[in-house]
Amino acid sequence: MAGIGLLTGMTTVMFGFGGGFVAVPVVVWADAVLGGDAMRVATATSALVMVVNAGFATLVTSRQVLRALRGSGALLLLRRRLTRRHDSEPEALRWHLDRCGELDAILDRSTVDDFTVDTTTGSVTDIAASVIKQAGWL
To answer: pTM, whole model, 2 decimals?
Structure first.
């Protein structure tokens, strides 16, 4: 079992997979005496490991980062957009990512209501005008 644990850990670190790819089949094999329930036990075990890992990651992640992500759930989308925008400017990318929490706190203190502006179409001028209009600044 220790060898299987090491294999799972190594494949997770090296390739980004391990739990479902290695551990579930091993748990099914190890619990074969359970018959048809072996797959349920393996799936439940894998789900429990994911929940524990997600909980641990939440506990160790700084509150500033969690506040910046609150309600949006779009860390990957934000990171992807910023990375595309600043792909040749690593310093600018780092600055923007580091500043997310600060900007979120500023917006929380402001009296501006939440609203959404579609930035996928339109010129910069059109998007800015939409922000000004929805914020009620003019």
So the answer is: 0.40
